[in-house]
Design goal:
Elements: E1 4-9, H1 15-29, E2 42-47, E3 61-63, E4 66-68, H2 73-80
Parallel strand pairs: 1-2
Antiparallel strand pairs: 1-3, 3-4
Amino acid sequence: MPVTRLEICTEYLAPEDRENLLDAVWTALRISPGMVTADGNVELVLAQCGAGVRPEDVPLVRVGEVEYRQVTPERLLTLMKRWVR
């Protein structure tokens, strides 16, 4: 099974929002940026996602090739449920 890349885009993202998203990932998957889950299925990355990111889109999260805009920590937990056992 290939590794799924979970990207949190940092453009326009307030430090508090970034930390809240990272806390949600830690709670669900027990990984920090640059780490891969123990089963090797998910990699977490903080990334500059490019000029196409608008301030009204943040927090922006990419799961593989799919973008999710205005993601709250609660929504991120919902997106990660497929990887939590």
